[in-house]
Amino acid sequence: AQKVTQAQTEISVVEKEDVTLDCVYETRDTTYYLFWYKQPPSGELVFLIRRNSFDEQNEISGRYSWNFQKSTSSFNFTITASQVVDSAVYFCALSEGNTGFQKLVFGTGTRLLVSP
Amino acid sequence: ETGVTQSPTHLIKTRGQQVTLRCSSQSGHNTVSWYQQALGQGPQFIFQYYREEENGRGNFPPRFSGLQFPNYSSELNVNALELDDSALYLCASSLAVGTGYEQYFGPGTRLTVT
Prior knowledge:
The complex is a heterodimer. Chain A is mainly β. In chain A, strands 2, 5, 6, 10, 11 and 12 form a 6-stranded mixed beta sheet that branches. A 4-stranded antiparallel beta sheet of chain A has the order 3-9-8-7, with no helix packed on it. A two-stranded antiparallel ribbon of chain A has the order 1-4. In chain A, a hairpin with a 4-residue loop joins strand 8 and strand 9. Chain B contains no helices and 11 strands. Chain B is mainly β. In chain B, the strands form 2 sheets. In chain B, strands 2, 4, 5, 6, 9, 10 and 11 form a 7-stranded mixed beta sheet that branches. A 4-stranded antiparallel beta sheet of chain B has the order 1-3-8-7, with no helix packed on it. At the A-B interface, strand 5, strand 6, strand 10 and strand 11 of A face strand 4, strand 5, strand 9 and strand 10 of B.
């Protein structure tokens, strides 16, 4: 069965601090996809990144970076020099590759509070 | 490019009633999925529609049903509402039905059942 664990319920940082959000996943499939979404107070989930199970390269996009390690089944997300606008709930999600349809399994989310 | 839209924004219903939520997919997207997000939880997959047919379903009872129309818009219907159905209902569309495609979400419909 597939499962995503985000052990950090809430993180509070001061602006300009770096912060890492942890994500650990479980799946029996060898083909799968990992995602991060941001949910601001407005409620809409905003897509941030997708990674497939065959691509372990880390990715950087501006202040955001992602570290994918199959050996530890982790897909962690780091925000460098955090800003108040980064305050939101962040979800990690998993989709298995052999179901014939896309079912995203989400973690319970990590609420990030960035104060000025 | 128009994003995913949902209506209504908020809805209050009484236990036992029926409700219909609507979703318009992003331009060019042919696959629509519905999720239920209870307060403080991650979204839970309800079902997915492709070519006007349900092609995948999560662990939800049959009183949750849906439709997809030729223009790829979709409806979620819930019969015999229960208090636990109170949640944010999110619609997502994707470019195709494959498992690796990003899903783009709408703003959601907040349903309150009293």
